[in-house]
Write the structure tokens for this entry.
Amino acid sequence: MKRNLIMMLLPLALFATTAAQAFDKATIEKGEYLSRAGDCIACHSIPNGAPFAGGLAIDSPFGKIYSTNITPSKTAGIGNYTLAQFDAALRHGKRADGSNLYPAMPYPDYAILTADDVKALYAYFMEGVAAVDQQAPTTALSFPFNQRWGISFWNWMFANDKAYQPQPSKSDNFNRGAYLVQGLGHCGSCHTPRGIAFQEKSYDESDASFLSGGKVGIWQAPSLRGGDKGALANWSKAEIIDYLANGRNNTTAVAGEMTSVITHSMSYLTQEDLAAIADYLKSLPGDGKALAMTAAATKKTSDELNSAKVGINSGARLYLDNCSACHFTEGQGAARVFPKLDGNALVNDEDPSGLIHVVLAGARLPSTKGAPEALAMPAFGWRLNDDEVAQLLTFVRHAWNNQAAAVTAEEVAKVRQTIPQSVMNATRP
Amino acid sequence: MSRQEQPVDVVLVGLGWTNAIMGIELAQEGLNVLALERGEDRDTVPDFAYPKMADELTYGVRYKLMAKPAKSTITVRHSLVETALPYRHLGSFLPGDGVGGAGTHWNGHTWRPMPEELHLRSYVEDTFGKNIIPKDMTIQDYGVSYEELEPHFDFFDKVLGVSGKAGNINGKIQEGGNPFEGPRSSEYPLPPLKRTLNDTMFSDAAKAQGLHPFPLPSSNASEAYTNPYGMQLGPCNFCGFCERYGCINYSKASPQTSILGALKQHKNFAYRTGCEVIKVNLSDDKKTATGVTYIDGNGEEVFQPAKLVVVGTFAYNNVRLLLLSGIGQPYDPVSNTGTVGRNYAYQMMGGATLFFKDKVFNPFIGAGSNATTVDDFAINQIDFAKEGFIGGSYLLAAQTNGQPIHSLPLPPGTPSWGAGWKKAAKDYYGHSMSISSHGSNMSYRDCYLSLDPNYKDDHGLPLLRLTFDWKENDLRMTQFMKHKVTALAKGLNPDFLKVSFKDIGTHYDVRPYQTTHNVGGAIMGTDPKTSVLNRYQQSWDVHNVFVLGSSSFPQNLQYNPTMLVGALAYWSAKAIKEQYLKHPGPLVQA
């Protein structure tokens, strides 16, 4: 999609006269809510640091990109930004000094925001956030990625520029959901595969690649397509809402990078907005990624485990001794408490790294307003060696209805290297 | 001079069941609430994480989760003329320690009291006449009725996610539940746990004798559950590590799994661990508390100002704190004056073990509350005048665990060591079941708590002294139960039967484990001359001090105390929210 210069300049002119005004409470609150929907705080703060003061190092294929201070500080933040400059940064990746932002900032997604919403966000960041006069570290990528002007070409090639156009043939819920998913939610930045120039392959449902699954570090960002035979076909609308609001539902629980998204963003959205998102995801035609599930396959493995006739050093035995206390021999877990392993997306991911991480380091659910209990799985990295984890997960990835490749000790070792020993030892007796 | 902290609205002393309840109820009101916990912070993960709990030696025998007697304990004597000695090794009862307190290592038996138990003296006098009450028995009414507490029982049932079968819903008797219980306004939140072989056998034996068996109400969840605070439980997997352990599986209701996660979300709530409160500070006229003094983790003395002080530590520690603070008049059994320390009571237990060569019970399949019970010999079912005692028991067949060190019963006459013991252990592990009685204990003029004149804790403060022994009334009660249990056991035709009940004349022994249901000493009531607290668990003497826990019980129930302890905490919280905050002062005029 090519940049349309006239469209770009038009809002500038409109905004120029309104930048200095004070905002009413409702607008600031609306902006705060939208900032939650956009999960600005996750990247623009460091853990336990001042909100929006920036400084978080974001790993990219090109090097570490530090998030910026977006508090209204006039020296270190965006306190001098006019509404038009704010809009240019947010929606088009253009800094006030005219240079380009790195597209680690999901401005290609935010491009569809309406002028009203941009204004509310501006109101919040100018008047609802405490100014922090601390400079965030400067991003210093190596050549050629330090040449920010080059991003203009990338923008010209790949970035969006138009505010969301509601589709009259669709329901209000669909349109609201599409707006949130494509825009502030910037779901596609992880869940849509990236192209050769690291661009999202698509930005809306017009393309089958949209939200068909991506990768964030070692973690899977699974396909979110909820239509027939889609990866989320077996999730009800209520289960999608529960997952986004609370990081758990009847079949699964969050792990990896999505935990932060739920903690800082999705758990703050209204039930109505989450329902709109669920409606929209359910409308995306299936991509055939749903696993075929049969009761017979479930029974076969649970019979084997219940017989207790399993090899002393087998993966099945390791499962019985380490996992079945919570996930049970049927692999069904328990609704909203213990994830179901039978057909689980993380278990069946092509790359087992995320699954290995959960076993070695454990995982903890966020404490949300709707589900305050931060349920946790303990780490097993102190207890199981690489061979044992490989055997265990090879078993789990073939058990019940699961159909995924074997796991090797080398794959386990690689993930183990990334986890501090203190994390793996946290629950050691 | 102590360091002084920023004032708060409410300071909670201890963070177990009672103050988790009080904390969330008052935090929801918007008050600034601070909890001070003597022990360490604890949560399911990392502290109770699988598989470290499944270590009987560390947790079940060496009591890693319990209070440490080397730091502080109580002294014990049988009578007024003896010199008390310290309880140096935990045995008879196991006081908790750390966040969650004893609520983390309980079994999860979740009984409501009988309506009659809450006005026991009136019930006995009205039904059987004053004369049947022994001269030195000091039983009293609580001053609050079952009907008043019912909404709180009902809510606490739902907070805990109790698994069970109601026997009386709004007066209508329900098949399969306890027909003798007080009316409940709703069914239990979860269905009963699955049954084990011992349940079925006991149930058949009980029915054969015309009794009414039902599943023991359990705070081990039978299914996944979400409580009114949004807190969650997973289904119990019968791992058999409940009592003395924290639950690995989020399956046992505890302050951690039922309340604390929700409480911690309140920005107006905070808690500090490693902070041992040694005194409630009083104003010059001693009519109000100004806050509390505690020793922090660095050994520094700190004054924490507060408008309201809620004492919610382990039962007898509540009494000690009142005595150390000079709240209320210490009880003197000789002159029969004063109240603080009065009416300490315990729990009367007995049991039988049944050995069957040809039956396999798989005792490692267990849960703290995996039991079938009968309540046909409960307080409201026994003719006290005819039987010659006041009290009652429920009988239960429980299979809680198959731990090899302390759960390996062997037939009578088995050598206690050597080849004979080994052979019997091999032959009989998993071939026995038990039938026990869990009974009331009345209160007496010379069973009480006071400060010890000889022994001090690590801060140099006097230890609490327990003066207690078994009395004939309660021993007669347990002998009555012995006959009932023996008859039930014999009905099952075991190959061997071992019966263990206290005989008349038995003295209290602190060594073998009995129960951790220590009650009384800071009792609630209707008369400030005979109670420390009014019917809202508010100090008669210092109106901004509330004291929660089984220390409020004027005598012990025949049941496990947690349900009543929790319901009374909700009852007090309601009184504070609806009455006290609007008009701080005594809620009952003395």
